[in-house]
Design a protein that fits this description.
single chain, transcription regulation, mainly alpha, sigma factor, elongated, RNA_pol_sigma_r3/r4-like, RNA_pol_sigma70_r2, DUF6596 domain-containing protein, 19 helices
Length: 411
């Protein structure tokens, strides 16, 4: 029953939110439907279509709620008549009355949960709660935050959406582009936290990667003409394909150059290339930031060994990415590619220019990259100091141990 609810909850919440126009109330009504299932299914048996049963039960409760609100009486009369005509009292729908409507509702829920009026932290928490099916405790564990903090963040997000009167809709025109960027950013951030945990004892948090990838795939199905949606799917598929090779037997990180590429998931790689092809076709020759990152990941996936990687192409792609989505982190990644294409000395010039970037002042990968370049330039004492500094900045215990080991092994 828990599995069924986790799978069906986003669609149920989305369907109910269209009636009550409040995602917080919609979530409560979905939970009420689950309670009803816990009471009735053990007695009457599990229905043939559990998802439809939950949807119909939650919608009936939504109608009852709206009926009690006089200001919604006129709107309710129409919604109630339509729903009751489709589903007589005490019965559930064997199949949704209009699957396209449900997909539209799910898309509305995605855009509502990721509305720019919310902070990035609130968007992530609310998205994982409503669409990822995670409990507050699970979200708190994933991001190493107190459960009370996460609970308050989610409550405030729901209140903000209601207070600001955020419409339960998929925006169109210029507003869609702005809102879609927010949706994609949240999914991307969720995946990144699972792919390389910011802090804690584990490098990976697979559940977060799975949730983000599932949301990206759903979004691609709902918005098949959006190139950056496919670009994000391609990026996540290709990154996730390396998961099994990224850690050793005891969970220690394995650097890209040392990974056993036979352990890379070829099915995910194939899916990634398919999604990248769709992104390229839809972009009409002008790839966006996610598609460019996916193209970089594709270069790695095509190479049988680290040395055979097409580093000049990767450096070029990073240069394009720096134009489309400039950031110090992109420049740092470009420096790594340049070091493989043109040598460590050329890359060190780029890294040294980044030393004064405020955004990288506490970023452990800056001294880590610099340490690697110095080691390759046969400057072991300086490299050792950089690795040690990077270790002091790393918040993830696995990364910290790796950096300390590199400091001790340099020279």
């Amino acid at each position: 029953m828990e599995t069924v609810f986790r799978i069906e909850a986003p669609r149920v919440i989305a369907g109910v939110a269209r009636i009550v126009r409040d995602v917080g109330i919609a979530e409560e009504l979905a939970q009420d439907a689950l309670v009803a299932a816990l009471e009735q299914w053990p007695r009457d048996g599990v229905p043939d279509n559990p998802g439809a049963w939950l949807m119909t039960t939650a919608k009936h409760r939504a109608i009852d709620l709206v009926r009690r609100r006089e200001r919604y009486a006129r709107k309710l009369a129409e919604v109630g008549r339509d729903l009751e005509a489709a589903s007589p009292a005490g019965q559930y729908l064997d199949t949704p009355s209009d699957p396209d409507d449900i997909d539209d509702d799910l898309l509305r829920l995605v855009f509502t949960a990721c509305h720019p009026v919310l902070s990035a932290e609130a968007r992530i928490a609310l998205t994982l709660r409503l669409l990822g099916g995670l409990t507050t405790a699970e979200i708190a564990r994933a991001f190493l935050s107190p459960e009370a903090t996460v609970a308050q963040r989610i409550v405030r997000a729901k209140r903000t959406l209601a207070k600001k009167g955020v419409p339960f809709e998929v925006p169109y025109g210029p507003d869609r582009e702005a809102r879609l960027a927010s949706v994609l950013e949240v999914i991307y951030l969720v995946f990144n936290e699972g792919y390389a945990a910011t802090a804690g004892d584990d490098l990976l948090r697979p559940a977060l990667c799975e949730d983000a990838l599932r949301l990206a795939r759903v979004l691609a199905e709902l918005m098949p003409k959006e190139p950056e949606v496919h670009g994000l799917v391609a990026l996540l598929e290709l990154q996730e394909s390396r998961a099994a090779a990224r850690t050793g037997p005891t969970g220690e990180p394995v650097l890209l150059k040392d990974q056993d590429r036979r352990r890379w998931n070829r099915l995910l790689i194939a899916r990634g290339f398919t999604a990248l092809g769709r992104a390229t076709a839809a972009a009409d020759g002008s790839p966006g930031p996610y598609a460019l990152q996916a193209a970089i990941a594709a270069c790695h996936a095509q190479a049988y060994t680290y040395e055979e990687t097409d580093w000049p192409r990767i450096a070029t792609l990073y240069a394009l990415l720096a134009v489309r989505s400039p950031s110090p982190v992109v420049e740092l990644n470009r420096a790594v590619a340049v070091s493989m294409a043109d040598g460590p000395a050329a890359a060190l010039e780029i890294v040294d220019r980044l030393a004064t970037e405020p955004a990288l002042s506490g970023y452990h990968l800056l001294p880590s990259v610099r340490g690697d370049l110095l080691a390759r330039l046969d400057r072991p004492d300086e490299a050792r100091a950089e690795f040690a500094r990077a270790a002091t900045l790393a918040r993830n215990e696995r990364e910290r141990r790796l950096l300390l080991a590199r400091a001790e092994g340099t020279g």
